[in-house]
Structure prediction request, 193 residues.
Amino acid sequence: MDDDFNEVRLQKNPPAELSAPPKERARAGRMNVEYIPAFYGAFSEDTALAEMRPSIGDQVAIGEFALQKNLKVFDFPVFSKATGDKWKEVSEHTRYDFITQMEHEISKPILPFEKQREYIATQIVAEYLREYFECDAVIFRSSMHGGDKADNRNIVIFYKGAEFVGKERVLTLSKHHIANVMDVFYRTSVGKF
Prediction:
């Protein structure tokens, strides 16, 4: 939240304010090009906060959404959850290496100055999944939240010519609140020089 997006503005129309931005304000993202909106969400509040990269003292508006329509989803992390005989079947799939490599590319951290160049490949894959497989959404691991304590999956819902949140839309806003960021935690490892 900032001077332009404040609690008064949020309370006037929470579903619109917590949805994807309008076309004219949609910036390029991991799975969308500039001026093509996409709804980015997370499966846990911790993951959503990590993806937003807030600073201590920031206020963040957080919404919980309910799915209103069935979606055809490509779920990248599902391949790594297979166990036992299913794992052997999944890992022997002819496209397993491609899928795991693409999941790695989609989920790797990107520095702000690298976004334009680094997002090209993932934007192409998203468009391919949307166009040729008629996927409505893609689930992928968070690049900013890797712990086991919370569900670290994200979802992006592709634009289909209509708003994302509201009556008779893909999502409805169940509840929302404003959170004050009190602490930020980083986990490190020792690098080799």
About this structure: The mean pLDDT is 84.
